What does this fold into?
Amino acid sequence: MLWNVTTAEYLRTGHMACPGCGASLSLRHALKVLGEQTIVVLPACCTSIIVGGQPTTAVSVPLLHVPFATAAACASGVRRALLAQGRREVTVMVWAGDGGTFDIGLQAISGAAERHEDFLYVCYDNEAYMNTGIQRSSATPQGAWTTTTPGGKELEFEKKDIIAIVRAHRPSYLATATIAYPDDFRVKFERARQKSGFRFLHLLAACPPGWKLDSSSSLEVTRLAVETGIFPLLEQGDDHELRLTYIPESYQPLDDYFRLQGRYRGLTDEQIGFLQEQVSRRNQLFAGKS
Amino acid sequence: MQCESKPRAASSREMMMGSDAVAHGVRLCRPQVISAYPITPQTHIIETLSEMVDRGEIPCQFIKVESELSAIAACLGSVSAGSRSFTATSSQGLAMMHEVLHWFSGARMPMVLVNANRALGAPWNIWCDQSDSLSQRDVGWVQIYCETSQEALDTIIQAYWLSEKILLPVMVMIDGFILSHTMEQLMVPPAAEVDAFLPPYRPRHFLDPDNPETFSAAAFPDGFYELKKNITRTMEEAGDVLADGCRQFAERFGRRYEHVEAYCCEDADTVFCCSGALTGTVRVAVDQLRRDGHAVGLLKLRLFRPFPRRELLRLVKGKKRLIVLNRAVSYGVGGTVSQEIRAALFQEENRPTVHDVIVSLGGKEVFPEMIEQIARRAGELSPMESIWI
It folds into this structure.
């Protein structure tokens, strides 16, 4: 897979992403897998800015900007129009942030998933409202600083389990991925592309300004999210069970992941211990299934 | 509406509810995508459309969405991908669509939406007034108000014709219950005649991987200002384009519609102005008042956006007073339509006195006698304050 990466670029240079942006790197590689017969539906998110303002655009596939809460509904409409016109060879992809997915867009996602609308919904999750200046979302992890959780997000507010929510709708494909594991990432996009019906990919995408990272360490941090188990690489099999697609030989301590990010600076040792216990419990749960 | 020459092809004369008339109008326009969410009193429209789609009478995709926001958003997607689309709603549903209504006009996407006029809560109220659609007067949609079910059917065909010419969306209003749920005898035009009037939708721009374009990317202030100026210009011209469409429609189907329709106005000194099915009630009142020797007339405001200022000015020239019958109020100013009419007349030297009457909200019944009473008391009415019945 890794050796088949096309040299064609569908997210071209000159876009407006910050250095080290996980979202733009993910979009670049997602489009390389999906190819030019792709239509992107884009609600308000960092990428609405990244792709550039009129009269320029950094994306060389058709792209539809849509209001924040409407991505899954708009994509339903795009697909139905293609069906009505007999244009069958096109992939329709929603590209949305965590705010547009976990929060304001959730109802439309539920509706589209229940109707088995035929498109790929990708959430690139940078774990807060980064485009508006780092406010907490329901995807913000416990303990993380944002401008609206100045003391760190309360430990009792766990990150919303979007995978469980989407899975309850019995999608035709469901997986998590990060561009820090490009082979796994590409395989999952390819599988998603080949399926029909409602498909959902949850990507963890590092945000250097929002996570208070050095821009050169965004891939390293994303890799650590997987190696610690705080962001497991999952895939739903044909039996609708979730399995790990990558199992670290031994899980790294969560503290290593936290220490690289300024947003976790306020955590006490006790809090880190509490969160480590949570993640370890989940790691064991998945280990038993995989 | 005036019936002129004979229609060219035979229409079928049928008895049906207003909602079914809307559904037949939509069917004849051959939408490729319909997306809708149920709300009283719009429900019969989408039920009938569902049956038509089910029977294969409308070969189209019907998306049964989970909210009105998604109903209009799905249409944003389908029109952007190049398909003629339709939705219908009412009241709270239209309010919920507000954000996407703006998006449609800003993106210059043609679209037709039928709104069954109904009051907005709180408190809950399912009956007719125009506060839902008049609250949306600034979203960049053409607004047309229908008096009869025949007019609703015809207007939907004209609405697609107009919308795809000017690349702005069109909202067609029928009175909830008063039109939507009552039977009327009407003419259903033959499909071939509608096809000849309304060609298939051929968008210049649509989502096409073979010709990739970005739609509605962020615009910087100067560009944004220009785009909005263009919408205003197009909207100002839309009245003339629609007038041309109505002329062509009349030639083909024998039914002529005007932006502002005058009834008994030639020698009238006092003229009522209203829109929607209320017009029928006022016609009856005008007939009675005429029999009693009062020089009264009626102006039916069919087109509300763009506001038909020129037509209105021509028709009210030399009149003594204009009594505006409102079914929506802008709190703190008065009847919504009265304000529009006052603004339109303001520059005229010999303008009639405008009386602002809030005649009905939330389905409050209006009887011809009430209208007659207003006319008989016209001399005592103060132009300074709103009149509540």
In short: The two ends of chain B are 29 Å apart (CA to CA). The first helix of chain B runs from residue 18 to 28. The longest strand of chain B covers residues 12-17.
